C-alpha cells in the first residue's frame, strides 16, 4: 500500500507543479512608465562604464562630485523611483535580464577591441616616426664617402676613410 501512496504523492506533486507553472503570474508588475529594453541596456552599459571608471581611476576623480546614478537620471530623463521599478521589473525575469546583460558585455568587449585597435595604430605611428627619426639622424651623422674624400682633400689629412 505504501507503494501506491508514494506514486500518488509524486503524481499529485507533479500535477501541482505543472499547475503553478502554467498559472505563472508576474511577481513584479509592469511599471507604469516602462523603460524600453534597449534603453535599459544603454543605462546598464553606462552604469557599468561609470562604475569601472570610479573604481579604476579613483585618484583622477577625487575632485569631482561623482554620483553615477544622478548622471543616469539626468541623461535618460528618469527619476530614482522609475529606475528602481524598471530595474526590479527586468530583474524579475532572469532569462531576459541575462540576455540584456550579455548585450552590455558584448558592447563593452566591442568597445575594448576598438580602443585597442586605435591604441595599437597610434603606437605603430609613434614607433614608425621614431624609426624614421633615428634613420634620419643616422644618415645626418654619417657622411658619404664622397663628402669624406672631399674634406680630406681640402685638409689633406690622412685617414679619410676612417
Give a description of the structure.
- There is one protein chain.
- The model has no long low-confidence stretch (mean pLDDT 78).
- The longest helix has 48 residues, at 94-141.
- The chain has helices spanning 2-22, 37-56, 68-76, 80-91, 94-141, 145-155.
- It is built from six helices and no strands.
- 75% of the residues lie in helices and 0% in strands.
- The N and C termini lie far apart (112 Å).
- By secondary structure, the protein is mostly helical.
- Helix 2 (37-56) packs antiparallel against helix 3 and helix 2 (37-56) packs across helix 5 (94-141).
If you average the pLDDT, what whole number results?
78
Question: What's the helix count?
Answer: 6
CA-based shape? elongated
Q: Compute the separation of the termini in Å.
A: 112 Å
Strand content: under 5%
Question: Uncertain regions: pLDDT < 50 for 5+ in a row?
Answer: none
Structural class: mainly alpha
Name its key features:
single chain; 162 residues; mainly alpha; 6 helices; elongated
Layout of strands and helices, then pairs:
Blueprint: H1 2-22, H2 37-56, H3 68-76, H4 80-91, H5 94-141, H6 145-155
Short characterization:
The chain has helices at residues 2-22, 37-56, 68-76, 80-91, 94-141, 145-155. The termini are far apart.
Amino acid at each position: 500500500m505504501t507503494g501506491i501512496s508514494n506514486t500518488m504523492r509524486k503524481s499529485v506533486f507533479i500535477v501541482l507543479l505543472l499547475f503553478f507553472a502554467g498559472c505563472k503570474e508576474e511577481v513584479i508588475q509592469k511599471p507604469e512608465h516602462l523603460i524600453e529594453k534597449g534603453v535599459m541596456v544603454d543605462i546598464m552599459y553606462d552604469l557599468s562604464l561609470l562604475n569601472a571608471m570610479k573604481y579604476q581611476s579613483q585618484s583622477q576623480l577625487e575632485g569631482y562630485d561623482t554620483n553615477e546614478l544622478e548622471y543616469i537620471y539626468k541623461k535618460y530623463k528618469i527619476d530614482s523611483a522609475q529606475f528602481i521599478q524598471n530595474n526590479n521589473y527586468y530583474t524579475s525575469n532572469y532569462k531576459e535580464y541575462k540576455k540584456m546583460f550579455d548585450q552590455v558585455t558584448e558592447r563593452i568587449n566591442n568597445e575594448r577591441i576598438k580602443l585597442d585597435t586605435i591604441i595599437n595604430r597610434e603606437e605603430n605611428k609613434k614607433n614608425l616616426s621614431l624609426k624614421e627619426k633615428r634613420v634620419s639622424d643616422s644618415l645626418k651623422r654619417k657622411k658619404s664617402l664622397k663628402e669624406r674624400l672631399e674634406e680630406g682633400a681640402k685638409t689633406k689629412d690622412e685617414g679619410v676613410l676612417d
